[in-house]
Design brief:
- The mean pLDDT is 94.
- This protein has seven helices and five strands.
- The chain is globular.
- Helix 5 links the parallel strand 4 and strand 5.
- The chain binds 4'-phosphopantetheine.
């Protein structure tokens, strides 16, 4: 059984993330969305539980039931490789949108490999139509009253609307 972990901040999940996970689910038997509790980048706008709930709804609303059943959603704190080991996962999945992602992803992949040689990183090129997307842009656009319905799944739009501009 091939098990993969898709780690990230997912604050919030975008159509780009959904594209990557659905393609990963075509390759791996089980994929874990692993939501980092405290992203380093910035203070998260959505609490961990909200991110987990939005991802579960987004996956269930966009993937066929047999695929959604193979995508688990959990939070984690600590090292990605430790979470992988705890789930018997031997692959980390990451999306690559553009060349600008490459350097930091290369660094992470090599570091994780050094920490856990039995775990390999597999990259999926984010679909072209989603390659401009980023969670931080979505947050900014939404906070300024812009329309993000083409960028994030309805499960996120509902939560953003519930907050108005108070991000
Ligand atoms: O969505 P992001 O913010 O680009 O995801 C980054 C993430 C969560 C994959 C990365 O920060 C991570 O793996 N954090 C967990 C701590 C860890 O394992 N650090 C060493 C990775 S090289």
């Amino acid at each position: 059984m091939k098990i993969a972990v898709y780690p990230g901040s997912f604050d919030p999940i975008t159509f780009g993330h959904l594209d990557v996970v659905s393609r990963a689910a075509a390759v791996f038997d089980q994929v874990y969305f692993a939501v980092l509790v405290n992203p380093r980048k910035s203070e998260p706008i959505f609490a961990t539980d909200e991110r987990l709930a939005a991802i579960r709804e987004a996956v269930d609303e966009s993937c066929p039931p047999d695929v959604a059943a193979r995508i688990a959603i959990e939070s984690f704190d600590g090292l990605t490789v430790d979470f992988c080991r705890g789930r018997d996962a031997t692959f980390v999945v990451r999306g690559l949108r553009a060349i600008s992602d490459f350097e930091s992803e290369l660094q992470m992949a090599h570091t994780n490999r050094k920490l856990a040689p039995e775990i390999d990183t597999v990259f999926f090129m984010t679909a072209l139509e989603h390659s401009y997307l980023s969670s931080s842009l979505v947050k900014e656009i939404s906070a300024l009253g812009g329309d993000v319905t083409q960028m994030v799944p309805p499960a996120v739009v509902r939560r953003l609307n519930a907050r108005g501009r108070s991000l």
